[in-house]
Design goal:
Elements lengths: L1 E6 L5 H15 L3 E6 L7 H11 L10 E4 L14 E4 L9 H7 L4 E4 L2 H10 L7 E3 L20 E6 L11 H8 L6 E6 L7 H12 L7 E3 L6 H8 L4 E4 L8 H9 L2 E5 L14 E3 L5 E5 L5 E7 L3 H20 L6 H7 L4 H16 L1
Parallel strand pairs: 1-2, 1-3, 3-4, 4-5, 5-6, 7-8, 7-10, 8-9, 10-11, 11-12
Antiparallel strand pairs: 13-14
Helix pairs in contact: 1-2, 1-11, 5-9, 8-10
Length: about 350
């Protein structure tokens, strides 16, 4: 099959998604024509696998076009074939521009059943055109490995600084869960390329100036996914107080490594996070304006993290620590089994199957 792909290839989340999809579609033997969105600067570890495709500038006029991009910018496509938009969004509503944009493609691929329900509810014209194409994990890189053999219980948070991701409440949770004499560590890797140095320092100060500031370790943005894996392999449990997620690549990568998860029971990561593989925090406080003075202006809502949710996070963190102390914290086998179903190869095959079904 000839397929035009209009997508970013870089080290942002969208860029990693596009790079891995291109890699696996090419391995399946499809004739890919790549039209870039923005500068092309892939992860060096992925470059050799997709380099051939990146130079196929001669898009086909008659082939389907898959555009992997934001929900507000699905208006333009290449060629005269079927137009497929693949947005990754976090909220449960759309503004006027997003509604117009999402109404344009012939087909829409979304990552999760949660996202499918949102689109079908808000974009009535697309009710029969939405397909779920779950994203994946590189199962050749994020492989299971033994939990670190240390007395210290090590928690980790991965994902760029944002109120949406609950970074404003995470230090409160950590400080409420433990005392100074508890042998715990919180590893933070939240670099956000869209923030200024001053904004980043404000975030770090909020953590460092807290009661357990000396038990929080900040790591810089890593240059490769292999380096991310090396860090993930050194923690016991990931913690994600997210108010809204479009997928959460890092959460499924942690499951693939056999790490435990403490995570909100809401939005897109419910596609792979469940009671068997994660310690879920039930979102019982309803909704609040999605506002952070940077990326969201409060026009719509996301899940609220109130005292009830904070208490659940606290209890889950304490449970992981108790299990680590008494020697009953083992590899997350359920998480490993779940991640095995969400490979990039499966993502690519799902894309192909859905396109073929549209052509029949």
């Amino acid at each position: 099959m000839i397929l035009n792909i209009n997508a970013p290839v870089n080290t942002t989340s969208y860029g990693y998604v596009s790079s891995n999809i291109i890699k696996e579609l090419d391995k399946l033997g499809h004739d890919l024509r790549y039209i870039p969105i923005g500068p092309t600067s892939p992860d060096e570890e992925l470059l050799n696998d997709i380099k051939k495709v990146l130079f196929r500038w001669d898009y086909s006029f008659d082939a389907p076009c898959l555009k992997i991009w934001h929900q507000h910018d699905l208006d333009a496509f290449y060629g005269k074939g079927i137009r497929i938009g693949m947005p990754i969004f976090e909220l449960e509503d759309f503004n006027i521009k997003e509604v117009h944009s999402l109404s344009n493609p012939d087909k829409i691929f979304v990552c999760s059943n949660w996202a499918k329900e949102v689109v079908e509810k808000k974009i009535s014209s697309q009710k029969r055109n939405v397909s779920v194409v779950p994203l994946g994990v590189d199962d050749t890189l994020f492989t299971p490995c033994s939990l670190p053999n240390t007395n210290k219980t090590i928690f980790g948070n991965f994902g760029k600084w944002e109120v949406r991701k609950g970074h404003d409440v995470l230090p409160d949770i950590f400080n409420k869960a433990f005392e100074k004499d508890d042998d715990v560590l919180l590893v933070m890797m939240p670099h956000n390329i869209f923030l200024s140095k001053e904004q980043t320092n404000d975030w770090i100060s909020k953590y460092k100036n807290s009661k357990l500031g000396d038990k929080i370790l900040f790591l810089d943005r890593q240059k490769s996914q292999k380096a991310v894996y090396d860090i993930m392999s050194q923690i016991h449990c990931g913690i994600f107080p997210s108010r809204a997620e479009g997928w959460n690549l890092e959460a499924i990568e942690l499951l693939s490594c056999g790490r435990h998860l403490i995570i909100t029971n809401a939005t897109a990561h419910t596609e792979f996070c469940n009671e068997e593989n994660s310690l879920l925090v039930n979102m019982e406080s309803g909704y609040e304006p999605a506002k952070d003075a940077k990326f969201f202006n409060g026009d719509f809502e996301w899940r609220k993290i109130g005292s009830n949710e904070i208490d659940q996070f606290v209890e889950h963190m304490r449970l992981i620590h108790r299990k680590r102390q008494d020697g009953s914290l083992y590899l997350n086998e359920s998480g490993i089994k779940t991640a095995q179903r969400f490979t990039w190869k499966n993502t690519a095959q799902k894309i192909v199957d859905n396109i073929w079904n549209s052509l029949i």
